[in-house]
Amino acid sequence: MRDLLQYVACCLAFFSAGFLIVATWTDCWMVNADDSLEVSTKCRGLWWECVTNAFDGIRTCDEYDSILAEHPLKLVVTRALMITANILAALGFLSLLLGLHCVKFLPNEPLIKVRICFVAGILLVIAGVPGIVGSVWYAIDVYVERTSLVLHNIFLGIQYKFGWSCWLGMAGALGCFLAGAVLTCCLYLFKDLGPERSYAYSLRKTYSHAGMSMAKSYVPPRTETAKMYAVDTRV
Amino acid sequence: MANSGFQLLGYFLALGGWVGIIASTALPQWKQSSYAGDAIITAVGLYEGLWMSCASQSTGQVQCKLYDSLLALDVHIQTSRALMVVSVLLGFIGVVISVVGMKCTRVGDNNPVTKGRVAVSGGALFLLAGLCTLTAVSWYATLVTQEFFNPNTPVNARYEFGPALFVGWASASLIMLGGSFLCCTCPEGERHSTQQPYRAGPASASASAAAREQIIKVPAPMRGDPGL
């Protein structure tokens, strides 16, 4: 059960880290709404703004000005948050790989491996926070911009809605949260049920249990056992 | 005999090579317009890839267009595409398989001979992927060179190697290096089994097979490398 949970968390972490990275570097954070009078798709991202013509398929991209130029605060902060989320999620995934049970890293110390998994879970949760903040903030900003345009009865110009990169960012952040939750909470719940303490430990435990039950069923007085010991030593 | 560190090194080299192959497949800069002529057009830089052709203007805008028709494309572009996609797929299978076969994982630990064979086959897949990439990239480069030195090509319409070609060469060599590292970890059991018939001498076939099995099976758990 614990192994299965670890694999589920590993897959989740892989895909959500991938989603976050793809979301950061693709250019469709906001896309023009269907009801605008355009024959082309306009996508704006964190780094590029692209226009794809619907008829001939030519795609023109324009990079935003140099990083030191004036940028809206939303853009800069979202960039920073997403890059932080990328780095943390990648770190969390890598440390999770080291902590997996089927990888022979520190094979004799299962407790340390469990701790590595726990740390990876915490890293993933921490990575999810900037990811969700960045993407949701961007989405809210797009929404506010659009509603203010509608409120002022401005129907000219381009109106934007959320693009797929934004959704990917949210999905990646949620996946990070989920993987972190699985790694921290569920692994903690299943900590006692886990059969794989390490073979030596479990064997020793069962032996001692057996010995104790034997001793209880016998209920021998201490003198008798002492005699047996004595006999053994004499032989 | 290679240890698990050697295997890991090979695996990560091959992983890097695979990522590079994906990058070079997707990049549009397989060939780019050359400024070797006397009339230098700096306003527009053209480049072409496997999937699209792009024009980068001096204003900072980049215009790209996907190739329209699949069947009207040049043969070498289609072949390069096919080879690159095949090598990406082979690399993917290799990445998955050699995780199972490497000594640092616990999957299939009880028969290390099979595990070693799985690792070797993963390495072979990496080698194949590298060969495919190398073929595609080198063929494309040869054609670009031929076109460049063809006297019929107008001077200002010449193309030369783009960055994607160099990325492709680098990643092909990386993945082949990693694959050969993985292939070097030939399982020890195979050696024993090849030596066995000489040692067994004129025994009956079944007896020698049994003996061989014993030889393989007995040292197996003891040889379990503690890994890393």
From TrEMBL, chain A:
Entry-linked PROSITE patterns: CLAUDIN
TM segment ranges: 7-26, 80-103, 115-140, 167-190
Organism listed in the record: Monodelphis domestica (Gray short-tailed opossum)
Pfam families: PMP22_Claudin
Reaction catalysed by this enzyme: Cs(+)(in) = Cs(+)(out); Mg(2+)(in) = Mg(2+)(out); Ca(2+)(in) = Ca(2+)(out); Li(+)(in) = Li(+)(out)
Record's signal peptide: none
Chief localisation class: other
Biological function: Forms paracellular channels: coassembles with CLDN19 into tight junction strands with cation-selective channels through the strands, conveying epithelial permeability in a process known as paracellular tight junction permeability. Involved in the maintenance of ion gradients along the nephron. In the thick ascending limb (TAL) of Henle's loop, facilitates sodium paracellular permeability from the interstitial compartment to the lumen, contributing to the lumen-positive transepithelial potential that drives paracellular magnesium and calcium reabsorption.
Protein name, as recorded: Claudin
Gene name of the encoded protein: CLDN16
Topology in membrane: Multi-pass membrane protein
Any one Gene Ontology cellular component term annotated for this protein: plasma membrane
Keyword NAD listed: no
UniProt superkingdom: Eukaryota
Homology family: Belongs to the claudin family.
Entry's Gene Ontology BP terms: bicellular tight junction assembly; cell adhesion; monoatomic ion transport; paracellular transport; renal absorption
Localisation: Cell junction, Tight junction; Cell membrane
A GO MF label: structural molecule activity
Keywords from the UniProt entry: Cell junction, Cell membrane, Ion transport, Magnesium, Membrane, Tight junction, Transmembrane, Transmembrane helix, Transport
From TrEMBL, chain B:
Transmembrane segments: 6-27, 82-102, 123-141, 161-184
Domain of life: Eukaryota
Location relative to the cell: Cell junction, Tight junction; Cell membrane
Record family assignment: Belongs to the claudin family.
Species, as recorded: Monodelphis domestica
Membrane topology: Multi-pass membrane protein
Keywords: Cell junction, Cell membrane, Membrane, Tight junction, Transmembrane, Transmembrane helix
One term under GO cellular component: nucleus
GO function terms (MF aspect): cell-cell adhesion mediator activity; paracellular tight junction channel activity; structural molecule activity
Alphabetized InterPro entries for the sequence: Claudin (IPR006187), Claudin_CS (IPR017974), PMP22/EMP/MP20/Claudin (IPR004031)
Main location: other
Biological role: Claudins function as major constituents of the tight junction complexes that regulate the permeability of epithelia.
GO biological process: actin cytoskeleton organization; bicellular tight junction assembly; cell adhesion; negative regulation of cell migration; negative regulation of cell population proliferation; negative regulation of gene expression; neuronal action potential propagation; paracellular transport
Protein name: Claudin
Lineage: Eukaryota, Metazoa, Chordata, Craniata, Vertebrata
